[in-house]
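Please annotate the following for my students:
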Amino acid sequence: MHNLLADQLDEALRAAPCATGLACEPQLRAAAGAVCQARAGEISATTVLGVLGADDLPQFQALVADIAQTSNLDIDVQYQVGTFVVRFTRRVLPPPEPAADSGLGAWLRSLRRRDAAAR
């Protein structure tokens, strides 16, 4: 499994167009893509570490926000002098709403409530 994932990541990095912006963009997009494309239970999160110039911070923040929004992932970004850590995590879906009370059981309960109120 790990060899297959490594091969897919290598292919994604080779196929990524040369960025005129940040050098870390292909790695960030590949990491986000790996989390998005993995089946449930395979990859729930991944972390990217890299080097970042002080002048690149606004462009980097915009890039990470764009990747998170377009891939529907949660992100956690940490900065230190000259470095960054970005963790992409699958969003946890809220539990489904309970089904509306309907059907024969609901009709019978409404009759019981009506009869109880009439007494």
Observations:
- The longest helix spans residues 57-71.
- The chain has a mean pLDDT of 83.
- The CA atoms of residues 52 and 82 lie 5 Å apart.
